[in-house]
Specification:
single chain; alpha/beta; inorganic pyrophosphatase (n-terminal core); 17% strand; binds manganese (II) ion
């Protein structure tokens, strides 16, 4: 298998994408490749299944590059940060029809792709992409460096999770040399929160439950919260980081009620507990320390199911 991305540069039309409701890592990697293509005068569309809006705390990324007019089919698709085609959302069909599907990722065993450039030990997809760009001799400019650094920062919890290896710091260091703006990115992602989002946070903190004997903590965001605080759901992703602060808990869950009454769950762990196994109870996925899922079960049923699984 030819694992060079440049092999596919002349096999257009090309689409660049990532998982549904892309995070800093999926967006950072995708925009980085898009900028590389633009610099080389290679035409490529970039888009994602975005159910609400893209989060404002990542708007230092070049959102304006997103393609408005998607084609009906693509010869080549680059897919970032997506271990399973079901996570492609509404573009799943058009993507799986492509002759060349290049999956660049750090999830465990992606289940698709005609070419896989994957390292499940890597902290972020942008780390995998960085290595690939260097390997193939591409120059990384300041804008690309900012995109790559965004994925590194978000997927390592600003260089704090256990996936933060010395290589992560080496790459971050190289990106800073190129001109990546760590302070600007960090301030946008973590250092500033909408006033209303901060008020909502107090509500979520009030609701936190701690099940001390199984070291499990959880809270919930309801649809009425979004109305009460006049806030978009995508502006509340940071709330899981508040729930996971509870010292006596190894496992943290934040449930977010969706407009159709179903729930999305974010799971985080410390001390090596594998929350991916909990997410898989609901056909979700992710990583050992951070995973997610969707479920049509009730809030109570979801929590019971997770509690029972932890007890085993
Ligand atoms: Mn990632």
């Amino acid at each position: 298998m030819n694992n060079k991305i440049s092999t596919f540069f002349d096999k257009g039309p090309i689409l660049i994408t990532g998982h549904i409701n892309p995070d800093g890592d999926a967006l950072g990697a995708s925009f980085c490749l898009k900028i590389l293509f633009d610099k080389q005068d290679i035409e490529a569309d970039i888009n994602f299944d975005i159910q609400n809006k893209l989060p404002s705390n990542l708007d230092h990324l070049p959102y304006y590059l997103i393609t408005n007019n998607m084609k009906d089919s693509y010869e080549t698709v680059f897919v970032f940060d997506c271990g399973n085609p079901s996570r492609l959302g509404k573009y799943e069909e058009v993507i799986l029809k492509a002759s060349n599907i290049i999956v660049i990722d750090h999830h465990i065993d992606p289940t698709f792709g005609t070419v896989q450039i994957v390292d499940s030990e890597a902290a972020s997809t942008t780390q995998v992409l960085y290595r690939q760009l260097i390997k193939e001799g591409f120059a990384i400019d300041k804008t690309m460096a900012n995109c790559l650094l965004t994925g590194l920062i978000t997927d390592t919890g600003r260089f704090q999770y256990s996936n933060t290896t010395s290589e992560v710091f080496n790459i971050a260091s190289e990106l800073l040399k190129i001109g990546a703006d760590l302070a600007l990115i960090s301030e946008n992602i973590y250092g500033s929160i909408e006033f209303n989002a901060l008020k909502l946070q107090s509500e979520i903190i009030n609701r936190i439950v701690l099940e001390k004997e199984i070291q499990f903590t959880y809270s919930t965001v309801y649809q009425e919260d979004y109305k009460k605080y006049n806030i978009d759901p995508e502006e509340t992703d940071f709330l899981i980081d508040v729930v996971r602060l509870v010292k006596d808990a190894n496992i943290a869950l934040l449930l977010k009620e969706q407009s159709d009454g179903s729930f999305k769950g974010s799971l985080r762990s410390r001390n090596n507990f594998n929350v991916q196994e909990l997410a898989s109870l609901f056909d979700g996925g992710g990583h050992k320390a951070a995973s997610g899922f969707s479920s049509t079960l009730s809030e109570k049923e979801i929590i019971e199911k997770i509690k029972n699984a932890i007890k085993i």
